[in-house]
Design brief:
With 103 residues, the chain is an all-beta fold. It has one domain (6-102). The protein is built from no helices and eight strands. Strands 1, 2, 3, 4, 5, 6, 7 and 8 form an eight-stranded antiparallel beta sheet that branches. It is globular and about 45 Å long. The two termini are 17 Å apart. 18% of the residues are buried. The mean pLDDT is 95.
Length: 103
């Protein structure tokens, strides 16, 4: 069995390179290119972008489902912690998760 190479993710690591914004006159209609990550140890696809909306958000798609987030989680209320690599704080109640980029 091969070991998974990973490291704490940064916001820049998971930016959606083909993202589209709600104000785009000629938006890219291709599906967003998401990145392979582990969220609290659970495999997911992740991206930071507008996803056709008007503000930046984080999107996580899980397979299998995450015990707290289920199949999908997204919020525009998130911030990567500058002092703890890979820690993402979200919401307004002090919640967080740890995200690692699979390299």
């Amino acid at each position: 069995m091969s070991k998974i190479e990973k490291r704490p993710a940064t916001e820049n690591d998971i930016l959606v390179t083909n993202d589209r914004h709600g104000f785009d006159e000629n938006p890219n209609l291709d599906p967003p290119i998401l990145h392979d990550v582990l969220v609290d140890g659970y495999p997911a696809k992740a991206g930071v972008g507008s996803f056709g909306m008007y503000s930046t958000r984080i999107l996580l798609l899980f397979d299998p489902p995450h015990p707290e987030f289920g199949d999908e989680f997204g919020t525009k209320y998130f911030m990567f912690d500058d002092n703890v690599p890979g820690l993402v704080n979200w919401g307004h109640e002090g919640k967080s998760f740890h995200i690692e980029l699979i390299v």
